[in-house]
Amino acid sequence: MKAEGEKIAVLTAYDFPFARMMDLAGIDMILVGDSVGSVVSGYDHTLPVTMDEMIYHTRAVVRGTGSALVVTDMPFLSYQVDVRDARLNAGRLIKEGGAQAVKLEGGTNMAETIRAITAMDIPVVGHIGLTPQSIHRMGGFRVQGRHAEQARQLLADARAVEEAGAFALVMEGIPAPLAREITAAVEIPTIGIGAGVDCDGQVLVIHDILGLCEKYSPKFVKQFADVSGTISQGISDYISEVKGGTFPDEEHSFK
Ligand code: KIV
Fold first, then answer.
1. Which is the catalytic residue, given 4, 96, 149, 172?
2. CB within 6 Å of ligand 1 — which residues?
3. Is the pLDDT of residue 215 over 80?
4. In sequence order, what are the residues at sequence separation of 6 or more whose Cβ sits closer than 8 angstroms to the Cβ of residue 63?
5. Nearest-CA neighbor of 155 among 133, 186, 134?
6. Which residue's CA is the nearest one to ligand 1's atom 4?
7. How far apart, in whole angstroms, are the C-alpha atoms of residue 57 and residue 34?
8. 160-193 b/e with 16+ CB inside 10 Å = b?
């Protein structure tokens, strides 16, 4: 798709119904993101998410997917400690979860790990820039690569991830001109989130684009629908009808 100049559309999903809807709508790739920790489990960040949780959500997404590529995030502590752990955990996401590829955060520092996982024939997506699992080092969710030295490091990271065998690269929270430069410098497709329009594809969190998340939403999120308004109205109507004794009516009762 990169070679043909066709943009790649990616969304996150964590369950069967959302995966099915986006697959039928023609999404190219579904990411079972560890953002599940923030938007589904209610944590402030992704660090508490476990391997077992990622496997559970991946299974549900895979059951709802027909043609999109399913990529699953390796959660914090599943690949950083040593390469053997990383290989085993990547294997579990494929074998038990049913994903077709895994994603992990990091650049040059993760090259050896990416090489080891791809050597097991498990396709890997890299993730550089604002990497949420490094929230404590970054001091919050901050745009990365604004300074020349950081920008040089991100370019080196992208090249290292590609050279290690990753087949795609997520770039999060970096200035658009830098994302354009990196996209031109690597052959693998870049998937941007808060990285401008010149990436080869875009990814957003499904809860963010549908207005399902009340928490602070970053500048790069565009809300494409207000689903929580519709849901809240439905719930209020149900409560009123139950309290008013108008539900269930004859139509919804057995004779
Ligand atoms: O966890 C996630 O959803 C992600 C994307 C937002 C890139 O890593």
1. 172
2. 12, 31, 33-35, 73, 170, 172, 193, 203, 205
3. no
4. 16, 19
5. 186
6. 33
7. 10
8. bbbebbbebbbbbbbbeebbbbbbeebebbbbbb
Span from the CA of 233 to the centroid of ligand 1 (angstroms): 29
Q: Which residues pair with 169 in a beta bridge?
A: 126, 190
pTM listed for this prediction: 0.97
* Residue 223 CB-density burial (10 A; 0-12 exposed, 13-18 middle, 19+ buried): middle
Judge whether 169 and 187 are in contact, CB under 8 Å: no
Q: For residue 191, what are the β-bridge partners?
A: 170, 201
Catalytic residue list contains 6: no
Instruction: Fill in the amino acid letter for 131.
Output: T
Q: For residue 232, what are the CA distances in angstroms to 98, 164, 214, 237?
A: 34, 47, 12, 9
Q: Which domains does the chain have, with CATH numbers?
A: 8-224 (3.20.20.60), 227-255 (no CATH)
pLDDT tens per residue, range 107-159: 999 999 999 999 999 999 999 999 999 999 999 999 999 999 999 999 999 99
Question: How close is the Cα of 83 to the center of ligand 1, in Å?
Answer: 22
Residue 65's closest CA among 34, 43, 97? 97
User: Which residue's C-alpha comes closest to atom 2 of ligand 1?
Assistant: 33
